[in-house]
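Lecture 7 notes: from sequence to structure.

We start with a single chain of 220 residues. Read the sequence below before looking at the structure.
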Amino acid sequence: MGGEKITAWEALQSFFSKEKEKPQELQVFNPLQLKIGDFASIDMEGLFGKQLVVTEIDEYSTVIGGQTFRHIDYILETDDGDKITLRLNPVAKTDPYAKKHCDVLVLFPDWEQEFDENLLKNVLSTGTFEVLENGEVVATYHRIGENKEPYSATVRVVDKPGQIPRVENFKYWDYVRDVEGGTQEFYFVEMSEETGWFQMFKGVLIFEEDVKFLRKKVDA
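Now the structure, written as tokens:
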């Protein structure tokens, strides 16, 4: 199968310097120009040597203070059938001399459940989220910034080649905690506005150069 082997940094540099090369057929914000079925690898503990395939692309649009912010989630599936999320969040100002256009996070599924009114009204509204194991608190996260209210996002989803994006709506809460080594661990809670289904994810920041992939060539 023909294709183009490229690093995330090279793709991001091309995307932000040559907007006209953005793939129109996906109809979503897509900095890495990935398509369903493309392959990726991530150099981090637990994922070394694993082949990951793109199964879904989600474009999040969130309006904050009258301004729209976008980030992109690439849903990747491992050889074992596990799914992780590669999230790219554009930085406010890019340094032309630095290899950084986006904050890059790897998100791992932690928990999911049906709608829970107590979780919505009495836990997520506090600004603090505790993760329990066997009834014991094993991690405590705090909202990023001072906002305790959820964000509302319109999400355009592509999960089939050439598919016109479908639209879904979510509320989400973002949390962070400091961990050993001077790093941070992130936690995200999402709730579907259509179904009320909750999903929780743990996340870590990685470098753009830690992501490599093989993408299909796009016809001119």
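Residues 40 and 213 are 4 Å apart (CA to CA). Keep this in mind for problem set 3.
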